[in-house]
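I would love for you to help me understand the pair of lines that follows before we discuss the fold together.
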Amino acid sequence: MAKTYLALDAEFFWDRDLHELHRAMDPKSQRHAVAVKKVMAAGVFQFTIDEEGRVSPQMKGK
């Protein structure tokens, strides 16, 4: 039986303003955590793997 999966991908960039707001709450923090990053791109990919291990992308629309 073939199984279908979803793969999620996101690209982030560090935001100086969010980091300054974070530092206002925690002045000792030097972390560049995800909480001070913004999403610049995101994607979802659906694919199927059949019983023989073949991978097939699922394309919808153009």
Q: What stands out?
A: The first strand starts at residue 3 and ends at 14. Residues 3-57 form one domain. The two ends are 28 Å apart (CA to CA). The chain has one domain: 3-57.
